[in-house]
Amino acid sequence: MIVIDASVLAAFILKEPGWRNLVKYVKNAVSVDLVFKEVANVIWKACRIRKIVDEDQARRLYSILESMRDKNIFLESEDRYLGDALEIALENEITVYDALYIALAARRKLPLATLDKRQEEVAARLGVKVIRVGV
Prior knowledge:
CATH architecture: 3-Layer(aba) Sandwich
Largest sheet: 5 strands, parallel
Strand order of the largest sheet: 3-2-1-4-5
Number of domains: 1
Helix content: 40-55%
Strand content: 5-15%
Oligomer: single chain
Structural class: alpha/beta
Order of helices and strands: EHHEHHEHHEHE
Distance between the termini: 20 Å
Radius of gyration: 14 Å
Shape: globular
CATH class: Alpha Beta
CATH superfamily: 5'-nuclease
Number of strands: 5
Mean pLDDT: 96
Number of helices: 7
C-alpha cells in the first residue's frame, strides 16, 4: 500500500497526459480524507475555470472518484495527522494541506506518490520514501 496525494489522484481522474502511468498507484492506496475535497475542487476548476469539461462530465468525474472510495483508495481522517502536518509545514515552508500527506506517510511508514516536486523534496528530507511518478 502507498499514500497518494491529490496531484496523483486528480491527474488520474482528469485523464491528464500520462494518466495511464498512475493506474498502479491508485489501485490500492491510502490517503487523508482531504484528498477527495481537493480532487472535487480540481474537477470544479476544470469545469468553471479551465473549461475543459462541462457540468455533466464534471459530475461523471466526481462519480468515478466516489466509486474508488474504500475499494481502491482508503481514507483516513486528516484530523489524526493535523498536529504533525502543522509542524512539518512550519519547519519546511509548505502548506498544511501538502504536509498532511507527508505526515500520513511518515506515521504509517508508507511510501508517498506525488507529482508535487516541493512536497517530494520535503518528504524525502524527512525520511519518507517517495515514489517518482512518471507521467
